[in-house]
């Protein structure tokens, strides 16, 4: 099998890349190890940055987000039994869309297939060869048979556990890693949200986040120790703990049946460079952020918008500059998001250390009293515009 761009992974980054390339007349094939139902149901992120919403709209896959998603103009920080609203529209003139990753994946998959795109579900990439030549190849298994995808370029959009990173020569790679001593227990609940905007709460018992999927479905998270078994958390215990951690006078948390429970470990991770020879990385295959800043999905989609532009410059005008600069350009945004996610995480999670606890409260009070401090949160959360 032969194509121009071989894409490994049909998560948000692989699908959007394939779609953007198609709009520029560039053919691609997407290999995805899982089946379509699994990929479309995987519960993950829920906040879309201002600029990423624009990328989806401009490429014709933003209609349902604009009809069914919810535009948010700010978030609420809670600490010490009080609350502070960060007003994005006022502070930086931008907003975010509350629109789930599952829905983005469903729309992109449907659009690719309607446009005649080739997504091979159940196709597991096993090796990437010849990345230092101009004829790279991806070996993969599909329907029990070993097959070969020959291409001009390979895009590793295969997430943190994919094979892309392992295909780089050891002497060209540098990785940066930070593990945190806590995880998030995430739940979906069939109950209308108890707040109009997302609530990020810092409490001595641990962090809590109230998000939402729609007017009827709430998404909530609790900081828990690493290795926690979600089965140890009954519905009653989840609601009690959320109520306690998010409590402010005059506010009540609505309760309802939980429809899913899962654990997400927290990690920061970056691989440099994000390209080598004819192999390019996008999304979680190259970097991971702890989810506190809502950046993982947004970084992944920003990466592929950049990569698609660079490939278009090459295929339509023969220009190589943007492809050569891809790694350096993408990494600038990645490191900004890494810092913001690390900062939000260490600001809001309980470590059990009394000194850190005082520093967190001091910083939160500063955020609540300083327009300059709140503005830097607003600028980073809504996504710094691309130059
Ligand atoms: P993925 O979505 O991981 O997609 C990679 C795809 O590649 C997968 O479909 C995988 O099956 C496929 N693949 C892997 N190996 C192969 C192979 N060898 N051959 C073929 N296909 C392969 N971000 C937030 O902002 N907020 C959150 O609340 C949040 N929660 C998260 C919870 C979890 C459990 C995880 C894992 C991530 C979460 N994230 C969150 C991060 C966000 O979802 C990711 O940043 C985003 O999914 C990255 O998209 P991606 O396309 O790069 O990778
Ligand atoms: C959601 C996840 C996040 O990590 C976050 O910071 C905000 C919202 C969510 O799943 O809705």
Molecular structure report:
This protein has 387 residues and is α+β, with helices and mostly antiparallel strands. The chain folds into 2 domains: 5-71 and 97-177 and 267-348, FAD/NAD(P)-binding domain, CATH 3.50.50; 180-266 and 351-382, 2-Layer Sandwich (D-Amino Acid Oxidase, Chain A, domain 2), CATH 3.30.9. Helices cover 37% and strands 29% of the residues. It contains 11 helices and 20 strands. It has an 8-stranded mixed beta sheet with strand order 6-5-14-15-16-13-17-20. A 6-stranded mixed beta sheet has the order 8-2-1-12-19-18, with helices on one face. The longest helix has 28 residues, at 321-348. 45% of the residues are buried. Bound molecules: flavin-adenine dinucleotide (FAD) and 3,4-dihydroxybenzoic acid. Residues 8-14, 31-34, 39, 44-45, 101, 124-125, 157-159, 162-163, 264, 283-284, 291, 294-297, 300 line the site of flavin-adenine dinucleotide.
SSE order and pairing:
Elements: E1 5-8, H1 12-23, E2 28-32, H2 36-41, E3 47-48, H3 50-58, H4 63-68, E4 70-72, E5 74-79, E6 82-87, H5 88-92, E7 96-98, H6 101-114, E8 118-121, E9 123-129, E10 137-142, E11 145-150, E12 153-156, E13 174-189, E14 199-202, E15 208-212, E16 218-225, H7 235-246, E17 258-272, E18 275-276, E19 279-281, E20 287-288, H8 296-317, H9 321-348, H10 354-369, H11 371-382
Parallel strand pairs: 1-2, 1-12, 2-8, 5-14, 12-19
Antiparallel strand pairs: 3-7, 4-7, 5-6, 9-10, 10-11, 13-16, 13-17, 14-15, 15-16, 17-20, 18-19
Helix pairs in contact: 1-6, 1-8, 8-9, 10-11
Bound molecules: flavin-adenine dinucleotide and 3,4-dihydroxybenzoic acid.
3,4-dihydroxybenzoic acid binds at residues 45-47, 198, 211, 219, 291-292, 294.
